[in-house]
Design goal:
- The protein is built from 14 helices and 14 strands.
- It is α/β, with parallel strands linked by helices.
- The protein has a 7-stranded mixed sheet with strand order 4-10-9-8-7-5-6, sandwiched between helices. Strands 1-2-3-12 form a 4-stranded mixed sheet, with helices on one face.
- α3 runs parallel beside α11, α4 runs parallel beside α5 and α12 packs parallel to α14.
- The radius of gyration is 22 Å and the shape is globular.
- The N and C termini lie far apart (about 50 Å).
- The chain binds pyridoxal-5'-phosphate.
Length: about 400
């Protein structure tokens, strides 16, 4: 049919243009992903781009919990949470999350993406205002758009600009300050105490996405960056965390007051209209929380890896500032970044090139992530290869 051919060729033209601009994204398929060693297109390489920061995806307790869950409960739940998909294992996990995050209640979502979309679209509406850090994760952007609230994006970390916006809003307008706590493509941290102070003074909700901070920050519970503020639970603070990164599994949660959680059960469409997480995932998540509370060594090892990387970079004359497990090496040009990622891959290091639109125009970068499972020698070898490239 001519019409389909037309559409088809239009798509191809767009794809060709992306390729010409060095922006075409391709899926890389891994064999034997036993991190940090993975096999890509037959070549064994070291993986420095995953978010399995504590290496828990291969922890024996998580694997055993998932296996047992399949034997005991089967492969799937067969229903959304409100329609037969809430099992005792789901509510037990939620109680565990609430204790972990020290909040009155918690709700498990199928993914961090669905949690963010569901919270913002479920709680904010067309008469409200969402004030969001410019570098927030795409799922928070999408949630804000779906909510139909006015969406103001303030410059990255700029609390002064945020305060100006807050000041200008009529008192009667409901407002939400929304931020990643650790930013996914830059690895830097939001000024949580200042943001809380602003939320408090200007009567705003504070929505925090702890995806990259969970398991990484927090001396006692390792529950995220909010824990380090010592501010504890507040009724208007809503925290999101994921099981999919440092916790080595899959899924996400919201930790908040009972009123917030009960409201999400009513209004969060990504919660209401999606089949609940399968037993294997729920039980692996439960095991991950157990491991996190009883085995602080994984978080300690992660921070050792981060220090090793920083020291090696400083020694090689390319000092980097790192605030979390994520090190951005910003090169600017997309083509240069893709070429450098390829050269590193040829040398046996899998590092992801991140380009617009994931990051702002002109800030293409290599995004290096460290983990507890990297050996010091492997990290030093990466830094050797990287600094040779940067010197060219
Ligand atoms: C990864 C990520 C998400 C999405 O979480 P998934 O569980 O992978 O869907 C949300 N927010 C931030 C900041 C993230 O980095």
């Amino acid at each position: 049919m001519p019409q389909e051919q037309q559409t088809e060729s239009e798509l191809r033209r767009t794809l060709n243009q992306l390729a010409a601009d060095n922006r075409l994204r391709r899926l890389k398929t891994m064999d034997e992903p036993r991190r940090p060693q993975v096999v890509l297109a037959g070549q064994s390489v070291l993986d420095f781009c995953h978010n399995d920061y504590l290496g828990l995806s291969h922890h024996p307790k998580l694997k055993a919990a998932a296996q047992e869950a399949v034997d005991r409960y089967g492969a799937g739940t067969g229903g959304a949470r409100l329609i037969g998909g809430t099992w005792e294992i789901h509510t037990r996990l939620e109680a565990h999350v609430a204790a972990f995050k020290q909040t009155p209640a918690a709700l498990v979502f199928n993914s961090g993406y669905q949690a963010n979309v569901g919270i913002l679209s479920g709680l904010a509406g067309r008469h409200d205002v969402i004030l969001a850090d410019k570098l927030n994760h795409a799922s928070l952007v999408d949630g804000a758009i779906l909510s139909r609230a006015k969406h103001i994006r303030y410059p990255h970390l700029d609390t002064e600009a945020l305060e100006k916006h807050l000041k200008a809003l009529p008192r009667t307008v409901r407002r939400f300050i929304v931020t990643d706590t650790v930013f996914s493509m830059d690895g830097d941290c939001a000024p949580l105490a200042d943001l809380f102070d602003l939320a408090d003074r200007y009567d705003a909700w504070l929505v925090l996405d702890e995806a990259h901070a969970t398991g990484v920050f927090g001396l006692q519970h390792r529950s995220g960056l909010w824990e380090t503020t010592g501010l504890g639970h507040h009724d208007r603070v809503i925290q999101v965390g994921t099981f999919s990164k440092a916790l080595g599994s899959f899924g996400a949660y919201v930790a908040a007051s009972h009123d917030v959680i009960d409201s999400l059960v009513q209004f969060s469409r990504s919660f209401v209209y999606s089949t609940s997480l399968p037993p294997a995932v729920i039980m692996a998540n439960q095991a991950a929380l157990d491991v996190l509370s009883t085995e602080p060594c994984h978080t300690e090892r992660l921070w050792e890896s981060i220090r090793t990387f920083q020291d090696a970079m400083a020694d090689s004359g390319v000092p980097v500032r790192m605030y979390s497990a994520i090190a951005p090496v910003v090169l600017g040009d997309a083509g240069t970044t893709v070429d450098m990622a390829q050269t590193l891959l040829d040398a046996g290091f899998y590092v992801q090139a991140i380009r617009p639109p994931t990051v702002p125009e002109g800030t293409a970068r290599l995004r290096i992530t460290l983990s507890a499972s990297h050996e010091a020698a492997q990290i030093k070898a990466l830094v050797g290869a990287l600094s040779r490239q940067l010197a060219v």
